[in-house]
């Protein structure tokens, strides 16, 4: 075990050939976990423990105060057995870095039964809880199996080897896409998978209870079960809704706010729907949000046209504009209910059914929502 400075740690991470450390967000999360601020003064000393492991060896428990444990895994030339890394080897260490090409079987369990701490942030146009990472784990280059058995919010960056992951009870993020992987959500509904590139880089094949996302260029596959949100670049996402109602909730973000639903906000509104909130009530909540504020200043014509752009990627046609303006002016239909209607029409089109009165499906549907009835 030794101590070093935060500056040295940052330099070492950024000069590493591990792709995980090319993501500045991951580096920032590691520094946040290892350099806490007390009384406005950051702790710039990081305590690191290094251990080399092979098949059959047992990793020692980390020394008290260890902030980063570096586990270098090796294997014999004839053995294909995994290096087993049990909970003791990583207990209460906020950053776990695995190095080497050996196969590993890792179980993470600090005994935490609840995630947190919660950070108040504006998500999804409403004040929703956003939970930060309490543990960062970076895989090596070999084949890997990870089981997160507690509720500590974990960010896991997978390597280039094939991987199997079961997330835990907290808010977990699995960064995948370098090797083929199967990722299964654990006992919470809040896990997220993160992939590089944009949604257009991937094909999505939905089964009854899982989804296979394939990189069009590399052919790498990510099989996803019991997880509803895949974050990609540019604030975009692949959303896997269990029902048409969930699909419409996800689409409300595009319609009302002109953006993809964020994971925290989507979970927030999915939970409200499970507790009995209607689509109209959720649309009304978005309309009352601070994020919607500038759109509330649009005149009715500009407002309706913005819904066409946000939902179908086109300007409103004459007949459609007349219909919706008439609904507002002649029948007193609220903006929230018109937003709800656009979201429901989007979902109908996604399912291959055009809305009543329409003669054809929309050519373009904004967003990347897929209904997978058994996903959760």
Automatic annotation (TrEMBL):
Region listing for Disordered, in residue ranges: 1-20
Q: Where are the transmembrane segments?
A: none
- List, alphabetically, the SUPFAM superfamilies matched: beta-Roll
Q: Which InterPro entries match?
A: DUF4214, PBS_linker_sf, Serralysin-like_metalloprot_C
Any idea where the DUF4214 domain is?
Answer: 283-344
Q: What is this protein called?
A: DUF4214 domain-containing protein
UniProt source species: Pseudoduganella rivuli
């Amino acid at each position: 075990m030794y101590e070093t400075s935060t500056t040295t740690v940052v330099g070492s991470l950024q000069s590493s050939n591990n792709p995980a450390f090319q993501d500045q967000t991951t580096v920032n999360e590691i520094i946040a976990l290892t350099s806490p601020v007390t009384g406005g003064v950051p702790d710039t000393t990081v305590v690191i423990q290094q251990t080399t492991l092979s098949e059959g060896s047992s990793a020692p428990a980390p020394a008290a105060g260890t902030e980063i444990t570096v586990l270098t895994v090796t294997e014999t030339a004839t053995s294909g057995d995994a290096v087993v890394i049990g909970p003791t080897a990583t207990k209460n260490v906020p950053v776990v870095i695995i190095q080497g090409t050996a196969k590993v079987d890792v179980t993470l369990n600090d005994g935490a039964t609840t995630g947190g701490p919660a950070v108040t942030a504006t998500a999804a146009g409403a004040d929703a809880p956003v939970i930060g990472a309490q543990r960062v784990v970076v895989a090596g280059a070999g084949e890997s199996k990870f089981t997160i058995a507690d509720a500590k919010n974990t960010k896991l960056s997978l390597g280039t080897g094939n991987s199997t992951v079961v997330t835990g009870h907290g808010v977990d993020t699995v960064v995948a896409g370098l090797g083929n992987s199967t990722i299964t959500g654990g006992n919470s509904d809040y896990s997220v998978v993160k992939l590089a590139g944009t949604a257009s880089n991937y094909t999505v094949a939905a089964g009854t209870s899982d989804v296979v996302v394939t990189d069009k260029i590399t052919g790498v596959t990510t099989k996803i079960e019991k997880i509803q949100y895949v974050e990609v670049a540019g604030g975009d996402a692949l959303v896997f809704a269990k029902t048409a109602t969930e699909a419409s909730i996800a689409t409300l973000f595009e319609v009302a706010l002109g953006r993809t639903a964020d994971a925290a906000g989507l979970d927030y509104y999915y939970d409200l729907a499970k507790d009995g909130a209607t689509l109209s009530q959720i649309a009304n909540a978005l309309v009352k949000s601070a994020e919607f504020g500038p759109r509330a200043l649009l005149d009715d014509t500009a407002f309706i046209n913005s819904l066409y752009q946000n939902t179908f990627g086109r300007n409103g046609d004459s007949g459609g504009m007349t219909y919706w303006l008439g609904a507002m002016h002649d029948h007193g239909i609220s903006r929230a209910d018109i937003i709800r209607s656009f979201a429901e029409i989007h979902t109908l089109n996604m399912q291959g059914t055009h809305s009543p009165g329409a003669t054809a499906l929309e050519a373009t549907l904004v967003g990347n929502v897929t209904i997978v009835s058994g996903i959760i």
